[in-house]
Design goal:
Elements (H helix, E strand, L loop, with lengths): L2 H22 L12 E2 L1 H4 L1 E8 L8 H17 L6 E5 L4 E7 L9 H8 L5 E4 L5 E4 L3 E10 L5 E9 L1 H13 L6 E4 L2 E4 L11 E7 L2 H13 L6 E2 L3 E4 L7 H24 L1 H22 L4 E2 L1 H30 L4 H22 L1
Parallel strand pairs: 1-14
Antiparallel strand pairs: 2-4, 2-12, 2-13, 3-4, 5-6, 5-9, 7-8, 8-11, 9-10
Helix pairs in contact: 1-8, 7-8, 7-9, 8-9, 9-10
Organism: Hungatella hathewayi DSM 13479
InterPro entries: SecD/SecF_arch_bac (IPR022813), SecD_SecF_C (IPR048634), SecD_SecF_C_bact (IPR055344), SecDF_P1_head (IPR054384)
Pfam families: SecD_SecF_C, SecDF_P1_head
Length: 357
């Protein structure tokens, strides 16, 4: 097989794999375009109003702002980036709006809203219920997956205490040797180990998590911190998308049709260079979709416009380069020299177009 055909064959396989992965994903970890999370403007979303409970006064402005920041951190942990979080300082409300997909199986808005409103106050208590440490004494936490002696997977949360927290933990475990220490999230007992010895060094673990997701959820709550006051929402309302129900399908169809027309034009005008350019455009689009779908970032209308803009800029760059290479070939240069000179001559125009667009 000639080197050129071999290279083209490898490129074709790479593009096909990229397109398949971008459309359908690979397993549970690599999600494709079908599992992409769209913004409120495309698929709608939910709105929830969190109200303070258990307070005999209105929350102070700094408490409301602290609650808002913690809720935003929890939304970040869930990769919900296209959201609106506002406050009502008179009533102490925090209003949250975020997108969702009605067909997304692993995302339940009701559960997400309930978790956002959890106070998430981590405490370590003795057998009498006396609080010995709190979540503020923990500097960082992270979920951990490991295998026990039988090969069964186990999950836990590793804690790193602050300097003051490490001293408190050492003192508490020293007093509770041979007795149980209860670890609570709000009023829910999540672990109740027997203290074997005084623990120093500023580290601890919370075990007994059934899944890695449960361990990560607990770790995220600890890292975000506790709300300054308890909050609850009795219901939430659905937000209608600003586009019609069929608008997204029409946009996708139009985009695919336009892409095919561009490829036909490129191949008709520039032959093999045009075909290579089309492969590059398909690969670029696939990588962009994967970069959004794998981490489950939210795709909004401005985001779609940005993707279309980058494709247009790539087409423009390929046309400029192909024209310059054609001019060099017309002047009698060899193919290798024409490609080298063509890229060099086109570079300034391509760079200027990318910087100013």
């Amino acid at each position: 097989m000639k080197p050129g055909k071999k290279t083209l064959g490898i490129l074709t396989v790479i593009v096909i794999l990229a397109v398949y992965t971008a459309c359908f994903g690979l397993g549970k970890d690599i999600k494709g375009a079908g599992d992409m999370r769209f913004g409120i403007d495309i698929r709608g979303g939910v709105e929830a109003v969190f109200e303070p409970v258990g307070l005999d006064r209105n929350p102070a402005p700094n408490e409301i702002e602290a609650a808002r920041n913690i809720i935003e951190t929890r939304l970040d942990d869930k990769n919900i980036t296209d959201r609106e979080v506002t406050t009502d300082n008179e009533k102490g409300y925090v209003i949250v709006r975020f997108p969702w997909k009605s067909d997304e199986k692993d995302f339940k808005p009701e559960a997400a809203i309930a978790e956002l409103g959890d106070m998430a106050n981590l405490t370590f208590r003795d057998e009498n219920g006396t609080v010995m440490l709190e979540g503020r004494d923990v500097s960082t936490s992270r979920p951990v997956e490991y295998s026990d002696q039988t090969g069964m997977k186990k999950y836990e949360v590793e804690l790193q205490f602050t300097k003051e927290g490490a001293d408190k933990f050492a003192d508490a475990t020293g007093k509770l040797v041979g007795r149980r220490m209860g670890i609570y999230m709000d009023e829910e007992l999540i672990s109740n180990p027997v203290v074997q010895d005084k623990i120093t060094g500023g580290n601890a673990v919370i075990n007994g998590m059934e899944t890695y997701a449960a361990a990560k959820n607990l770790s995220d709550k600890i890292n975000a911190g506790a709300l300054p006051y308890a909050m609850e929402t009795k219901n939430f309302s659905t937000i209608s998308p600003s586009l019609g129900s069929n608008a997204l399908n029409i946009m996708i169809f139009s985009g695919v049709l336009a892409f095919i027309c561009i490829c036909i034009f490129m191949i008709a005008m520039y032959r093999l260079p045009g075909l290579v350019a089309c492969f590059g455009l398909v690969l670029q689009t696939s990588i962009q979709l994967l970069a959004i779908s794998i981490p489950q970032y939210t795709l909004t209308l401005p985001g779609i416009a940005g993707i279309i803009l980058t494709i247009g800029m790539a087409v423009d760059a390929n046309i400029i380069i192909s024209e310059r290479i054609g001019e060099e070939l017309g002047s009698g240069a060899s193919l290798t020299e024409a490609v080298k000179r063509g890229y060099k001559r086109a570079f300034s125009s391509v760079l200027d177009g990318n910087l100013t667009s």
